[in-house]
Write a structure and sequence with these properties.
By secondary structure, this protein is α+β, with helices and mostly antiparallel strands. Helices cover 55% and strands 15% of the residues. Among the domains are: 50 residues; 101 residues, Chitinase A, domain 3 (Roll). Helix 5 packs across helix 11.
């Protein structure tokens, strides 16, 4: 037995470089793109916890207008919060059983609650009446009188700021203290023509701080000032100032209706919102029963 020597001649087919070149170029581009993508993805990463990554694009999508000096600190806080959340999420997934991790029911209940809440808010938006009669406001005020107290000093008064160049300033001095209708009429006519500022709020409660802004002197002890003065006259280089106090209330006392109104309105609005929601639930329930859309099977 013997082996016959074989003379093998290999014929190598020449390669057409024009056909192969596109493949080589495409492969080069593909690897280059992958490298670029990986590089871009790495540069876009802000934080990592195990296999989870936080990307710049996620923050940019949530906060598109984030910029300026505060943005760096905000992003740092956001990253810290994200990592803490990922750690707790990992612990939850690791330590909870499959049954405990099944939150399908809770998610559905939360979704239903959110949908109902959104509809209720839209219903309120379309049906809420925010206007109140004086009778409604006064009735609520009387019912909740002990709920409203002043956080500042208030007064009812007459205030006049008269230029020193005005003719006959003695007319104001003569008539602003008077309660006679004829004197008040003369004072009104004179001030409407000559006064720089003429405010008659004898039937309306006004914050003393508001009046203080127009006086040339700072009243440090407002309470003493209100208790010991009724007619006040001041002056500076350009104006005479006249203040006639009709009544006042001190911080901590019961708030008059004028001041309580701004606190009463939100309470009444909340009351109306609750009434709208209750009426919506009751009426929609009745409609569902009457239209046979709902029925109680077990009796």
């Amino acid at each position: 037995m013997y082996f016959k020597q074989l003379n093998l001649k290999l014929r190598v087919k020449p390669i057409n470089i024009l056909k192969v070149l596109p493949v080589i170029v495409f492969a080069g581009i593909l690897f280059s793109c992958n490298d670029s993508f990986e590089k871009e993805e790495k540069e876009n990463v802000l934080a990592r916890y195990k296999e989870a990554f936080l990307y710049k694009s996620e923050i940019a999508a949530q906060y598109p207008n984030l910029n300026g000096a505060d943005s760096t600190e905000f992003i740092r806080q956001y990253i810290d919060k994200w990592i803490r959340e990922q750690v707790l999420l990992h612990l939850a997934n690791t330590n909870l059983s499959s049954e405990e991790k099944d939150i399908t029911k809770e998610v559905e209940e939360f979704k239903n609650s959110m949908l109902i809440y959104k509809y209720q808010q839209e219903f309120i938006k379309q049906n809420l009446d925010t206007t109140f009669s004086n009778e409604e406001l006064e009735e609520y005020y009387n019912q909740h009188f002990d709920d409203y107290f002043l956080s500042e000093n208030v007064l009812q008064a007459l205030f006049i700021q008269l230029p020193k160049s005005a003719p006959r300033p003695d007319i104001v001095k003569r008539f602003y203290m008077s309660e006679k209708p004829s004197d008040i009429e003369k004072l009104d006519a004179y001030c409407n023509k000559n006064a720089f500022k003429y405010d008659d709020f004898r039937n309306k409660w006004v914050s003393f701080d508001q009046v203080q802004r127009y006086l040339p002197e700072i009243i440090a002890d407002q309470e003493t000032f209100l208790r010991t003065n009724r007619f006040i006259e001041m002056a500076d280089s350009n104006f005479y100032y006249f203040l006639k106090i009709k009544d006042f209330k001190i911080k901590g006392e019961h708030a008059p209706l004028d001041f309580a109104i701004e606190m009463i309105k939100p309470a009444l609005i909340n009351k109306r919102k609750n009434e709208l929601i209750i009426n919506l639930e009751v009426s929609s329930y009745k409609d569902a029963i009457q239209n046979n859309d709902a029925e109680i099977i077990i009796k």
